[in-house]
Amino acid sequence: MTAISRTSVRNTVKRWSDAGVAWGFLTPWVIGFVVFSAFPILFSFVLSLTKWNMLGKPQFVGLSNYKELFSSNSGFGHTLLVTFVFTIINVAISIICSLILAMLLNLKVRFKGLFQFFYYVPTIMPSVVMAGCLVLMFNPQLGIVNYIFNCLGVSNPPNWTGSNTLVWVVVAYASIFTFQTGQQMLVFSAALKDVPVELYEAASLDGANSWTRFWHITLPGIAPMLLFNTVSCTVNSFNGAFTLLYPLTGGGPGNATDVLSLDIYNQAFKNFNMGKASTLAVVLFVIVAIIGAAEFKLMDRK
């Protein structure tokens, strides 16, 4: 009986010791999450219930900011539409380009590592630097894009960032060089290596062409990573739109590319309306949270 008690006590002490070690490793992350994520989120929600210009004391107004935001003349509907358009373009371009690059990297070619390095370089480049380069490239007077058009005989090349339609061409082109494309390329490249080669060999013997093999073997084989990349890219597009669009278009021309994150910045640091800015931030957080919940639901089904 005594031996059993001693064994039980030792097991209990070991469990508590293991739990203490685990919490010791988790504590820095928990502190960082509370200080840099949980508290700002909670504080933003509190500020969304106030009117505050960062000079006096915040004035509690309840849900007035939300009522004003969702009113018909607030312009929020247009901002939300532009945000979703940007997200769809950014996600589609990033997913397609990263998948194509990953498939090219899985071919038996020389200097594969060198190609992978060059494909990945835009990922480590700051978005502000990349956007600045694109602004110069698409400049109507000095840009190399219009210079090429002039060399081809086009007398009046377009003003890319001055047109409500053509500015989306610039945004789509910029999406190729965003952080997501390089990261997703590596994920797709690893996923493609896990697809059994025997399936391709059997399909080739049955006379399947390249498109059939891609549609019926490659896509099902990388489906979990395709879902993961799509959802993570969607979340990053909502959260990272500001770093790309602010130096690239500034929300213009007019408000053609005025996404939620840009509107938050303008309301907070140009109009000094922290209440409305916090309201927009809460709405953005809710949208991203819903997308994250959908990700877990889809992954559970898989």
Descriptive overview:
The protein is mainly α. The chain has two domains: about 1-45, no CATH class; about 75-300, MetI-like fold (Orthogonal Bundle). Helix content is about 75%, strand content about 0%. It is built from 13 helices and two strands. It has helices at about 1-45, 65-70, 75-105, 110-125, 125-135, 145-150, 165-175, 180-195, 195-205, 210-220, 225-250, 260-270, 275-300; strands spanning about 50, 60. The chain has a two-stranded antiparallel sheet with strand order 1-2. A hairpin with a 7-residue loop joins strand 1 and strand 2 (about 60). About 25% of the residues are buried. The model has no long low-confidence stretch (mean pLDDT about 85).
Secondary-structure blueprint:
Elements: H1 2-47, E1 50-51, E2 59-60, H2 64-69, H3 76-105, H4 112-124, H5 127-137, H6 144-151, H7 167-175, H8 179-193, H9 197-205, H10 210-221, H11 223-248, H12 260-269, H13 274-301
Antiparallel strand pairs: 1-2
Helix pairs in contact: 1-13, 3-7, 3-8, 3-11, 4-8, 5-11, 8-11, 11-13, 12-13
State the CATH architecture of the largest domain.
Answer: Orthogonal Bundle
Q: Helix/strand-derived class? A: mainly alpha
Write out the CATH superfamily name of the largest domain: MetI-like
- Quickly count the helices: 13
Find the count of extended strands (DSSP E, 2+ residues).
2
Along the chain, the helix and strand elements come as HEEHHHHHHHHHHHH
